[in-house]
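Action item from last week, closing it out:
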Amino acid sequence: MSIIWKGVMPAVTTPFTANDELDLELFKVNIKAQLQAGVHGLVLGGTLGEASTLTDKERRILTREAVALADGKVPVLMNIAEQTTKAAINLAKTAEEDGAKGLMMLPPMRYKASDAEVVAYFKAVANSTSLPIMIYNNPIDYKIEVTLDMFEELLKACPNIQAVKESTRDTTNITRIKNRFGNRLAIMTGVDTIALESLLIGAEGWVAGLVDAFPAETVAIYELQKAGRIQEAIAIYRWFMPLLELDINPKLVQYIKLASTYTNIGSEYVRAPRLVLQGDERKAIIKIIEDALKTRPTLPEYKHLNH
């Protein structure tokens, strides 16, 4: 399966049990809910997947489980967020062996690499695998920006670098990318709070966060805007915005996992050093979730609008 870079691709959470083990039963519940809602791909081991806390063995288990559940209907992607080029190449290799159809890749972790080092890192991994790659460009959270000049070099050298998860939070970057690269670099918006506007000005898809709790609403926004039913998409988006803002907080993992407990497709267990929410912060997030559920919109039939 070559990847069609479009639609909603959840950055799925990794569910844990109270004993800090993978909760594969709940993982299945969530993945099935995503597929039922009509998502177009699944991204494992991203920020929301608590990538930095997973062992190699756990990653492989999650990949195989997701591939089995997706059953060829949508591609499964594994995120690469490693400290060394060697480890990144190894993860690309095992992801491919386990059935992943693509990779999402962050620049090197911890070390603030130079532009040349970042380009060399991406090239080394891209040249080690046949899998298509989406570069995750998130300078706000990860402190390294992949500039358009860097993309120019990468696109010339690596045909399997095909997409960017655009998380600079600057929507004008979408137009810059389109003006410079046309359709050579697909754009997947990576920030929930600017997702609809990003789609309307040229992003092909949405690597989403709150989709982990509200899959149908997320896919409905994508499908409605694609069908030109913009006002309906905007109405759902406006209802959704207080929830979407949970995606741009340092505690997005805890917030989104808590939200998923209210829709019965997740649990709030996180892996230490993260801790479940307590006190006033917990009350504030619960209020946002409960207020949204009270006014949850009735969705139009959205699944077959664009087929």
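Closing note: The chain has a mean pLDDT of 96.
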